[in-house]
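Hey,
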Amino acid sequence: MTVEDQLERLERCVEAFAGSVAALGERVFLEKVTDWTVRDIVAHLVGWNRHIVRGAKQILRGELPFYDIDPGSDYSKVNAALVREYGDTDRSALLESLAASAGELTAFLRAIDPGGWDRDFGVRHKGETLTVKSTVDDLIADYDHHRRQLEKFRIEVPHEATKVECARAIELFLRTGSHFLRNADWGCKDGEHRAWIIVDVDSEDEAQAIVPSQYRSEAKIVRLNAFAMEDIEDILRHHDP
C-alpha cells in the first residue's frame, strides 16, 4: 500500500464515520452507545486528528509522542481530556470540526517526505516500534471500530408459506452455528413467513453474507436509524415529497 493509498483510506473512513453520525437522530447523538455518548466518540476523534499531527512530528524527530506518556488505561486520561475540550453538544458543529481537523491532518501527512513514512526512528512504546504509518493505521482502525458501534442492519428473510418450508428454513438457521441465525425472530405463527435479524456489521454486503445462500437473493437489508421528535423538521427538509 502506498502512502497515498493509506491516506485515501483514512479519508474514506472519516467520511463513512461522519455519515453514520449524521444519520443518527439528535436524541441519539447525546445517548450512550457504550460507556460513551456518540458526541464523546466524535469529540475524541476530533482531538486525535490534531494529536496525530503533533505526535507524528515527534516521531520524525525520534521522540515518543506526548500522548504516550502516562496516557492512562487504554488512553483514558487522553480521551477524557479530548472529550472535555471538543465536546460540543451541537452535532453539526462537531461534525464540521471533525472534517476540518481531518483535513488538517491529511494535508500535514501528505507533506511528509515519503522516505519517513514507514521509517524506524527508534521510537518504542510498550515494545512496539512507532512510525508515522503505524500511527495512521491505528487511527484508521479507531474510525472503523467506532463506525461499527453506530451502525445496525435489519435483515428480513422470507420463505414459502408452507409447513414444510417453514420447518426447512428454521432448521437450516438453527443448524448453521451462526449466532445471528440461531437468534433470528420468526413471524410464521402469525402468518408472516419470514425471519428477522438485527446485526452490527460493517456494511450491507456483510449483512447479506450472513444469510444462507439459498435465501440470499430474496433477503432485504435495511440500515437502521433512531429518531426523536426533534428530528421531524430535519426529516421533512431532507426527504423527497
